[in-house]
Amino acid sequence: GLKNVISSSCYRAYEGANTAGANAVYWLEKVVERPDGLLVIKNITAGAKRRVPNTIAEIERECVFPLLRGRDVMRWKAQPSAYILMVQDPIVRKGIEITTLQQRFPRTYAYLKRFEPFLIERAAYKRYFSRITSGKRTELGPFYSMFNIGDYTFSRYKVVWREQGMKFTVSAVISEDSPIIPDHKLMMIPTKSAEESFYLAGMLGSTISQYVVSSYILSISTSTGILDNLAIPVFNPDDKDHEAVMNYSKQLHLSSVNDYQLINDLEYNLDICVSRIFDISNDDLQEIRESYHKLLKLDLSNNKDTSYKDCISESHEIILEVFAENDTLSVLEVMQATKLKKCEVEEGLKELIDLGKLQRKGKVKGIRYCLVDGGES
To answer: What CA–CA distances, in Å, run from 46 to 55, 277, 279, 339?
Structure first.
């Protein structure tokens, strides 16, 4: 039944924007948007592995983009909750030239200049943009250069999924205004239109694709390599099944996350359309659906009336993502990094310990949490 599914795709996936360990410099909160075009921003330091000073500064609006992090992506939903400072030239794949940045965006340059000693010590920067010859260091790119950024990063239409997660969590991303920038914990596929994004998200989010991916992914990591095993055809707006997948996917993205019955009905119909594209019989589709839900420890006995609620909560996914970037964290630090309530964090930590994903260290007031060895790839 899966012989037409397991093959390479014509689509190409990319990793999201990577600050090389300097999230606390580039990740921002908007404080005030001024009428003169400047933004008052504050850098996000909560949960950062390497500490940098909390800073409030004025920078040019043109250098700030919505940031989509792993914690912002749910099944069929993606909503940015922060911003990213972006001064990268996607063509030459390094930061905008210093003289250009100083002339066009002097406030942004002044902000970044404060962190120069920190930024030039990043391991990736020293590897790719710095050379030492005869004891003298030569810079091959501006000290604020970033990584994994190309034209595709600025596409207004994308499909994204979390690299870290117990499930293959996919969503379309549609940017009507400023392009939304996925971070390095997200994989992305740029598309040519909103319709193609909804189609591709529908194909990837279908039970058929979910089952194939869940059958071979390692631990809780889903990289760009998943497309090596999913023969998803390029979107054809004149194909009725492609159009149907796009429409069901769009409805899923617009539906309320709590409308479980509607979601189940839409996903059931989506699966039928995807099965036709992959030339999978109804009997084989039913077997795939049952096998996939057994993997998730769900009961499919009622077929499309089955509850949509997954056995792994979204808060689990959010908490795990924070631990992927930090050695150990306290309850308070997890709360600051995830914006979850104390009761949600405490319950999530306890359940993740029970699931063998996290472990507790220390005693009473000094209790901290970390990933179980081997729990992260």
So the answer is: 12, 45, 48, 10
102 pLDDT more than 50: yes
Structure tokens at 319: 């908490």
**How many residues are given for the chain?**
377
* 233/7: higher pLDDT: 233
Pairing mode, if any, of strands 170-174 and 157-162?
Answer: antiparallel
Phi, psi of 126 (to 5 degrees): -65, -30
- For residues 237 and 234, give the distance between their C-alpha atoms in angstroms, rounded to a whole number: 10
- Report the pLDDT value the prediction gives residue 297, as an integer from 0 to 100: 58
Nearest to 26 by CA among 147, 131, 177: 147
**Closest Cα to residue 207, out of 258, 150, 264?**
264
Tens digit of each residue's pLDDT (9 = 90 or more) over 170-181? 999 999 889 999
Whether 137 has a pLDDT exceeding 80, the answer reads no
Q: Tell me the pTM.
A: 0.80
Looking up tokens 């008052």, which residue turns up? Answer: 40
Please state, as a whole number, how many other Cβ atoms lie within 10 Å of the Cβ of residue 266: 22
The backbone torsions φ and ψ at residue 300, rounded to the nearest 5 degrees and listed phi first, read: -100, 15
pLDDT digits (tens, 9 = 90+) for 44-71: 988 777 789 999 999 999 999 999 998 8
Using CB atoms within 10 A of its CB, is residue 3 exposed (0-12), middle (13-18) or buried (19+)? exposed
Write the single-letter amino acid at 239.
D
CA count, 13 A, side-chain hemisphere, 278: 31
Residue located via tokens 């539906």: 255
Rounded Cα–Cα distance for residues 377 and 369 (Å)? 18
- Which residue is associated with the tokens 């979390």? 162
* Residues sharing a CB contact under 8 Å with residue 256, sequence separation 6 or more, in sequence order: 262
| Residue closest to 105 by CA, chosen among 54, 150, 58 | 58
Quick check: 79 and 124 in contact, CB under 8 A?
Answer: no
Secondary structure (3-state) at 42? strand
| 23-49: pLDDT as tens digits | 999 999 999 999 998 999 999 988 777
Contacts by 37-43, CB closer than 8 A, 24 or more apart:
37/61, 38/107, 39/64, 41/83, 41/85
Q: What is the pLDDT of residue 300?
A: 38
